[in-house]
Each structure stands twice: as C-alpha cells, then as structure tokens.
Design goal:
Layout: H1 2-18, E1 24-25, E2 36-37, E3 39-41, H2 50-55, H3 57-68, E4 71-76, E5 79-84, H4 87-94, E6 101-102, H5 103-115, H6 124-135, H7 140-160, E7 167-168, H8 169-186, H9 192-208, H10 221-245, H11 251-257, H12 268-299, H13 301-314, H14 328-340, E8 347-351, E9 355-357, E10 360-362, E11 367-370, H15 372-375, H16 420-437, E12 438-441, E13 450-452, E14 456-458, E15 463-468
Parallel strand pairs: 2-10, 3-4, 5-11
Antiparallel strand pairs: 1-3, 4-5, 6-8, 7-15, 8-11, 9-10, 12-15, 13-14
Helix pairs in contact: 7-8, 7-16, 8-12, 9-10, 10-12, 11-12, 12-14, 12-16, 13-14, 13-16
Bound molecules: protoporphyrin IX containing FE (HEM).
C-alpha cells in the first residue's frame, strides 16, 4: 500500500511538471459587486487534480489552503470543485441563510444510487420534516434501549476475541460494529445466516459508494453495491408489517412508530430508505473512531493507563447511559481522536443559486467540498496540530473554544450528525469493556497506513499487540 502511494505520488509529481497549472479565477464576480473571485487551478487536462485528491485528500486540501487560502477551486474530471478549509469557511456553508447549498445535489453524485432518499440526501423543508420524525429515534430513552441491546453483545464478542501479537484491530472492530448494527438497528430476530446475508449486502452498498469505476458491470464494486441495495430494500420491505405490529426496541421497530410533535409519521418506503442510510452513517464512522482511539491508546500507554484507572474506579464492568459522563479522560481521548482522524473527512454540497463564501463569488451549480478534517489540523486554529494530545480539550485549555466550528467532526447546521450521542455511547461502552479486559501496545516500528473512504481509514487491518490484562491476585 505504501509503495502504491509512493508510485502514485511520483506519477503526480511528473504529471504536474508536464502540465503547469497557473492560478486563475473560477468565475468573474458580477459587475458592480464587491465580491472577489475564487482562485484555484484546473490541473491536468480532463483529470484535473483528481489523482492528487484521491491519493491523499488531506495533503491536497492543505496544499490548496497554503496556495489559495480557505476558499479555492480545483479542476476534477471536467468539472470544478470549490474546497473549503478553516472554521469560518465551513461555517459559511453550513449556516448559510440563503439556502444556496444543497446537500442532496452535493452527495448524489457520490452515493446517490445506494443511499438516495436517506436523510442526508434531502434538503430544506423536506429535510426538516423528516429529521423531526427521525429525531424521535434518538431521544435519551431510545438510546438507553439501544445500549441495553448492545451491552451483552459487546461482552460476548470481546470474550471471544483471540488476542495476541498483530491482532487486526480495525478488522475486528468492523466485525463488531457491523454485528452490533444488525442487533441494535435491525433486531435480534435474525438467525446467523440471515444476519450474515444482511451484513454482506450492507457492506456491498457502502463499498459501492466508494467505487472508482461507476458502472453496473459484472461483479465489480459498483454492481455489487447496487445488488446489495436491492437486497436490503427487499428485506426491509418484507419485514415492515411485522415491525409495525410489534413494539421492539431496535431502530427498525422504532422508526416504524416514530412520530413528531404534530403526529407526522414515516411511510413504508421512508422507513426503508432511512434504515439503509442510518446504518451506513453509523458504520464506518464508529469503526474508524474506535479503532483509531485504540491505536492512539496503544501509542500513548500513559493515556491507556489513565483511562483504565478511570474505568476501574467506576466499579462496573459495563456502562449504563448515566455513566457516560463519568469518564472524563475517555471523553478527552475520544474528542482528540476525532480531531486528528476525522471519520467523515470531507462533506459535499452543490450551490443551487449564485452565492458567496467569505466574500468570494461562487456561481450556481458548483460542487463544494467542505473539509472539517483539514480544518482541524491547521496551526492557524490548533497549536501543534498533528500531535495527539487529549489534554488540549481539558477545562483549563479548551483549545476548541477558538471558534465554534474549530472542532467539527460531526458537521454543523441542519445536517449535523443525528447519531453523535449514539456514536459516543457505542465507542465508550466498547472501550470501557476493552480497558478492563485487555492491555495493548503498538509495535515501535509500526507505521500507520491510511486509505480514504468516508474518511481516513486504516488500510492494513491495524495490527496491534493485544494481551489479556493481568489482574492483581
Ligand atoms: C464518530 C462517529 C460519527 C461521526 C464522526 C459522524 C459524522 C457525521 C457528519 C460529519 C455528518 C454530516 C454530514 C453532512 O453534513 O453532509 C453526519 C451526519 C449524519 N450522521 Fe453521523 N457520524 C458518526 C456517527 C453516526 C452514528 C452512530 C449514526 C447513527 C446511529 C449517525 C447518523 C448520521 C445521520 C443520520 C446523518 C445525516 C443527518 C442529516 O442529514 O440530517 N452518525 N455524521
């Protein structure tokens, strides 16, 4: 993987020497306005700067910020993408009052065929209408119910982990969060074969959205994704009547009964579409957050000890919802991990009207890439930004206070993550149990290898040295 990346980088270096790409304006601002143009470059013919952005989206966004500032544009596959880096720029898009930024049109080209009619692919009044109903599935009593389903499943899975040197932490976390999703979201009525079929279909749909070749050809990633989506739709449709008749605590049953304050509910197809989307939104994100938190705790044993002491001091092998605020160091470490390795690195919008961002003119129909990850790694807002140091969030330091969107791994504005408490609850309850059962370390010569899906993702299964914890006596 590392060598593939190096090859790509050297190809890019050669290509950019062959095609020097001088800065120019994206579009001239309307005559008489006091707006500035967005500056950027087209990159290579047709491909634009696509290869560079795919090989290392973080480095690419950082480079653009250094060259052009917080608002820049870049050529990509015959279109122009505006990149926003820095809390002021991302705030301007998330909090735009003019309603000029469509989430549906921004995300559709990336993941539309797999997640169409999910909440993130809706806009404005319709989005708000659906979000108010969906919100009812994420109230505190509901989260309590999900945690009750989760806890025994986590205990059982961790007790079966065959730990040792080179334990593939990312792969095992993925298995765990996927099987948890099947239990908590879909419900426990599935037998093992059904659960497996559902998990594979779901995994295929998620990967489909990340395929490079976007064609329904043979057994390729995109085609497998479409078949996965079809299977999920068929499954959820076939189960709706039974869930509506029952009173389960799983998310599927809850969505069948969700009702906002005005009595609005979801139709059958809404339930199907929201189920598929929410499962996707929860999966890679929690997996990346938990596995990377484990990695950093392996690299910084003093933090691992600190978190373990706190978990042991609680005196309970598993967490209840009310305990989530009683582990302050775990909270700091979780926040810092999301800053340095944001699971959703980049978000998309499309302008549906001429607008401006920080005084730069952005015409209608422009794809906009919002970059919270790069923003959280800029030294303009964060001292020593590449250093993993949870203490920066301590009450005395609160480095995130520099701007309300300086720390923004869950997004902001109308589409801000609806599952942020769910995600925190899942990661913390698993970590609380892990700290009591295991000790782990990262081999000193290990170099983290990342690939890019929804965000920076361990590419090699994340091998860590795990052992059962030696308890006194
Ligand atoms: C650490 C874990 C997570 C991170 C970092 C994360 C991050 C994000 C971000 C950045 C967005 C905004 C997308 C945009 O504006 O375009 C988002 C939206 C969303 N997330 Fe999460 N997420 C996490 C976990 C979860 C979980 C566990 C669930 C569900 C149980 C979830 C459900 C959603 C949904 C439904 C949306 C769309 C909300 C809307 O469009 O109104 N997320 N998430």
């Amino acid at each position: 993987m590392q060598s593939a990346k190096k090859t790509m980088q050297s190809v890019l270096a050669t290509a950019s020497r062959a095609y020097p790409s001088p800065p120019r304006a994206l579009a001239e601002p309307p005559a008489g306005s006091d707006l500035k143009p967005v500056m950027g470059d087209a990159g290579m013919p047709f491909l634009g700067n696509t290869l560079e952005a795919l090989a290392d989206p973080l480095a690419s966004a950082m480079k653009r910020f250094d060259r052009f500032g917080p608002v820049s544009w870049s050529g990509s596959l015959n279109m122009n993408i505006v990149t926003l880096v820095g809390p002021e720029a991302i705030e301007a898009a998330w909090m735009n009052r003019q309603k000029a930024f469509s989430s549906e049109d921004g995300w559709e080209p990336m993941i539309g065929p797999f997640f169409r009619r999910g909440i993130m692919l809706m806009d404005f009044d319709e989005h708000m209408h659906h979000r108010r109903i969906l919100q009812q599935a994420f109230t505190r009593p509901r989260l309590n119910g999900y945690l009750d389903i989760m806890t025994p499943h986590i205990e059982k899975t961790l007790s079966n982990w065959e730990v040792g040197k080179g334990f593939p932490m990312y792969s095992r976390t993925k298995d765990l969060t996927l099987s948890l999703a099947t239990e908590v979201f879909v419900g426990a009525s599935l037998n093992e074969a059904q659960a497996h079929r559902l998990e594979s279909a779901f995994e295929a749909a998620v990967r489909g959205g990340q395929a490079l070749v976007r064609a329904d050809v043979r057994d390729w990633t995109w085609a497998r994704g479409l078949r996965g989506r079809e299977y999920l739709q068929k499954y959820f449709r076939s189960e709706i009547a039974a869930r509506r008749a029952g009173d389960g605590d799983d998310l599927f049953s809850v969505l069948c009964h969700s009702e906002d304050e005005d009595g609005n509910t979801f139709g059958d197809e809404d339930v199907v579409n929201h189920m598929i989307f929410v499962m996707m939104a929860a999966h890679d994100t929690s997996t990346i957050a938990l596995s990377m938190l484990t990695y950093f705790l392996g690299r910084y044993p003093e933090w691992q000890e600190r978190l373990r002491d706190e978990s042991l001091a609680l005196g309970k092998s598993t967490l209840d919802y009310d305990d989530l605020d009683s582990l302050p160091s775990l909270d700091l470490a979780f926040k810092e991990t999301l800053r340095i390795n944001a699971p959703v690195g980049m978000l998309f919008r499309k302008t549906i009207a001429d607008t401006d961002i920080l005084g730069h003119y952005v015409p209608k129909d422009t794809l906009v890439a919002i970059h919270p990850w790069a923003s959280m790694l800029r030294e303009e807002w964060w001292p020593n930004p590449t250093q993993w140091n949870p203490e920066r969030f301590s009450a005395e330091r609160r480095e995130d206070k520099v701007h309300r969107f300086a720390w923004a791994p869950f997004g902001g504005g109308a589409h801000k993550c609806i599952g942020l408490y769910f995600g925190g609850m899942e990661v913390k309850s698993i970590m609380h149990q892990m700290l009591q059962r295991f000790e782990w370390s990262v081999p000193t010569d290990y170099r983290l290898d990342l690939t890019y899906g929804t965000g920076p993702t361990p590419a090699d299964g994340l091998p860590i040295d795990f052992r059962q914890r030696r308890t006194a006596g």
